[in-house]
Write a structure and sequence with these properties.
By secondary structure, this protein is of the alpha+beta class. It has 21 helices and 22 strands. The protein is 36% helix and 19% strand.
Length: 610
């Protein structure tokens, strides 16, 4: 085949530029990334050979080799792993094959594109070679193919692909070093990098024919032999993350279930955390043989941010994703690993609250899914939840336990409000009476909060009650003398208003929860919240209309003006304005914005009609 030229995917060019500039101060990690990829390729060949022995002839020793040619100014890293076909070369070395990449790259500001920490959201991988090389040559042959492929690029915008000769399966990557990278031509420097970043890799790494790493899987070594740096480097190897992890847990279990687990909590959410098609889960090994890179069946979806691995002797070597589904051993492993992760989170809360705040900021919305999905662990998860609150400044959160400790004597329920945004929640008219009475209200603004709160109805025997609902408890706790005093004088006005807004509201009544705003809408008791209804309709659900209750503040001048307006047209204008204000205060859209504006203009330009 003659050489063909291809252009890099636009996102790949952007990421190459970002890495070359941002990672220059820590350029030695190029070797860690290339060795990590080589190790993965060897693991995949070993795994596929379980089903097809021809892929790995008897006597094959999987390894990674480093060769330095000072005269040519090159480093060659070669593995005898699974290798790549021509199609795989073009796909894997020409694009960042993850959906969502374009959207993420476009969302970065100019300053952010210089921030090396963002690279951790992608992983560095093969492209790290261009940090130190101005030309990279890859020759590769799949283990089930007889022909090889050569890939060449300077990392600027294009790459070429052509046929090549290669005696054995695997991949050889040759880095043509830049003029100022002489340090990486020194074998001692390379050996130091391997010992620092890749000593834990469970296959030999050779430099000029000499094995320079322990070649023993890190998770099989006693914890007493391992340092924090060992664990951190191993995390960066398996997660391709630029930053060290937030926390980790290493356990070896022997008994009815035999396994070793090494689990990590990252510091930051990857850019594709919400991509449902992205593979999830921890690595699975069976008797130290790599089986699956992402075994989603071993952790529930709400723990999809966890990185790490599990190595067990209780599953067969030929296990597949299909076998894992419904497998009793896999279910036991899932339960055990879930408990390990929740233990890690409990420990963060108890001993490192600032780190837990970092975790919550990155992954709290995902963890909330567990309230809906995992009834067995709902009580544990509830203690881990954090919410904004009317007693806290923007950005600060409280736990449900914190809330209970601050509850005044006589308060029977935990009060909350759901809203589209933090600003809409803090400025909601529903909070006015509760602020006046000194009651704290939790502010829930994530879309998932509506589902969460429908599944988390109590905490420590206290009911969770919405301040935007017509619940008896809400009404009784904020009843005011003003409301009772006005009941008689507003009776006719309320009847008149119900008739004016017939078909759009369930009823009208005076409110004890309003102290500043003229009106608000509340959901009838035992009905879905208005926000929940809106979310379900947005997702395509067909729901019967539930009309809201309109509450009026009898002390507000606009409401008093309504009572004193005999003219039906003027009364209708005021009625529509009060309803429209209540809708807007919820962050919802008006059915007739233009009509609302016309009525508002008439009100502003005229005196009350006698």
């Amino acid at each position: 085949m003659s050489a063909t030229t291809h252009a890099f995917q636009a996102e790949t060019r952007q990421l190459l530029k970002l890495m070359i500039h941002s990672l220059y101060s820590n350029k030695e990690i190029f070797l860690r990334e290339l060795i990590s990829n080589a190790s993965d390729a060897c693991d995949k060949r070993r795994f596929l050979a379980l089903a097809d022995a021809a892929l790995m002839p008897e006597g094959t020793t999987l390894k990674v080799s480093l060769t330095v040619d000072k005269a040519a100014r090159t480093i060659t890293l070669q593995d005898n792993g699974i290798g790549m076909s021509e199609t795989e070369v073009v796909e894997n070395l020409g694009t960042i094959a993850r959906s969502g990449t374009r959207r993420f790259m476009e969302s970065l500001s100019g300053d952010q594109k210089q921030d090396a920490q963002l690279i951790g959201q992608f992983g560095v991988g093969f492209y790290a070679a261009f940090i130190v090389a101005d030309k990279v040559t890859v020759v590769t042959r799949r283990a089930d193919a007889s022909s090889a492929v050569r890939w060449v690029s300077d990392g600027q915008g294009e790459f070429s692909v052509e046929a090549a000769d290669m005696a054995e399966a695997g991949t050889a990557i040759t880095l043509h070093l830049r003029e100022d990278e002489d340090e990486f031509l020194e074998p001692a420097r390379l050996e130091g990098i391997v010992r620092k970043y890749s000593d834990h890799i469970g296959l030999p790494i050779e430099l000029d024919g000499k094995t320079i790493n322990q070649a023993r899987a890190l998770w099989t070594r006693p914890k007493s032999e391992l340092s924090d740096e060992d664990y951190q480097q191993f995390y960066q190897h398996i997660a391709h993350d630029w930053e060290p992890p937030l926390s980790w847990a290493h356990h070896k279990v022997e008994g009815t279930l035999e396994y070793t687990s090494l689990l990590y909590l990252p510091k930051r959410a990857p850019f594709d955390l919400w991509d449902r098609e992205q593979a999830r889960g921890v690595q699975l090994y069976v008797k130290r043989v790599f089986i699956l890179d992402r075994a989603a069946e071993l952790l529930p979806p709400y723990l999809r941010f966890v990185r790490g691995l599990v190595d067990t002797a209780d599953l067969p070597l030929n296990v597949s994703r299909e076998i894992l589904q419904g497998n009793r051993v896999a279910e036991k492993l899932k339960s055990a690993l879930t408990k390990r992760v929740l233990d890690m989170l409990d420990e963060l809360v108890a001993t490192r609250p600032d780190d837990y705040a970092t975790f919550w900021s990155a992954f709290g919305t995902v963890l909330k899914e567990g309230i809906v999905e995992d009834a067995n662990n709902r009580d544990r998860l509830a203690k881990l939840l954090r919410f904004a609150s009317t007693t806290q400044p923007d950005g600060a959160t409280v736990s449900l336990a914190d809330y209970l400790q601050r509850m005044p004597e006589g308060q029977k329920s935990i009060y909350f409000l759901t809203a589209e945004t933090a600003a809409a929640a803090r400025n909601s008219p529903h909070l006015e009476g509760f602020r006046k009475q000194g009651f704290e209200v939790l502010l829930l603004t994530d879309r998932i909060d509506e589902w969460v709160i429908n599944h988390l109805t109590t905490f420590e025997d206290k009911s969770l009650v919405s301040v935007a609902a017509a619940a008896a408890d809400v009404e009784s706790v904020i009843e005011t003398a003003d409301k009772a005093r006005h009941e008689g004088e507003y009776q006719a006005t309320l009847s008149r208003l119900e008739k004016s807004l017939e078909g759009r509201i369930a009823s009208v009544r005076l409110s004890g929860r309003l102290t500043e705003s003229p009106a608000c809408l509340v959901a009838p008791e035992n009905a879905l919240s208005r926000r929940m209804e809106a979310l379900l309709r947005q997702s395509g659900e067909s729901l019967p209309a539930t009309l809201p209750i309109l509450e009026l503040n009898p002390e507000h001048p606009l409401v008093a003006r309504l009572r004193e307006t005999p003219d039906d047209d003027a009364f209708g204008d005021l009625a529509e304005l009060l309803l429209g204000q209540a809708v807007l205060a919820e962050g919802a859209q008006l059915e007739d914005p233009a009509g609302f504006v016309r009525r508002l203009n008439r009100l502003l330009l005229s005196e009350p009609r006698a």
